[in-house]
Amino acid sequence: MPETGTPLQGPIHRAVPEGDNRERLVCRDCGFIHYQNPKIVVGAVVTWRDQFLLCRRAIEPRRGFWTMPAGYLEENESAAAGAMREAWEEARARIVIDHLLAVYDVPRLSQIQLIYRAHLDAPEFAAGHETLEARLFGWDELPWSELAFPSVHWGLKHHRECVTSGDCAARSQTF
Fold first, then answer.
1. Res. 2: pLDDT tops 50
2. Could you report the per-residue pLDDT of 111-149, keeping only the tens digit for each?
3. Fewer CB atoms inside 10 Å of the end CB: C or N, the chain?
4. Backbone angles phi, psi at 86, to 5 degrees
């Protein structure tokens, strides 16, 4: 049987495998079952003092809109390491993870989003290859109407509630 990540070979068809309860992609020749599972997104609401680091996207979807550093978790990578990698790739920022801020379950996109609360190790950052510009914003300066994704809104608001209330336990929400 192929290992995880091996390209599918052979005639693939949809069928409910024995002992399963849903249709899967199955190879008629070898019986390999290709499970299609949700994508895991990792990211961070990154601050420097009382400001928030945002990146203006240079790629689709939502090119030109602002986002927190975030992206898909890679194989063989911890969630925190993935959030740190994304901050480096998108904003050339070295971040320190403070704690898990939220888990957003987004079934309609088949995504699980793990968003951390983090801060810049130093106030040094620059646009990465997927970013037009990276910038710090005060709360009252945040470009709410130009945020790329709902999860950016959710993360910023959860961060604000955490700081304001002192209750920084990780949230889990389904959207």
1. no
2. 999 999 999 999 999 999 999 999 999 999 999 999 999
3. N
4. -60, -40
* Distance in angstroms (rounded) separating the CA atoms of residues 25 and 34: 5
Pairing mode of beta strands 111-120, 39-48: parallel
Say if residue 61 is preceded by a cis peptide, omega within 30 of 0: yes
Q: What is the CATH number of the domain that holds 148?
A: 3.90.79.10
d(CA 27, CA 50): 54
Give the HSE-up count for residue 104: Cα atoms under 13 Å, Cβ half-sphere. 21
| Structure tokens belonging to residue 24 | 């899967």
- CA separation for the pair 166, 44 (Å, rounded): 18
Residue 91 has pLDDT above 70, yes or no: yes
Q: What mean pLDDT comes out for the span 26-45?
A: 92
Amino acid at residue number 136: L
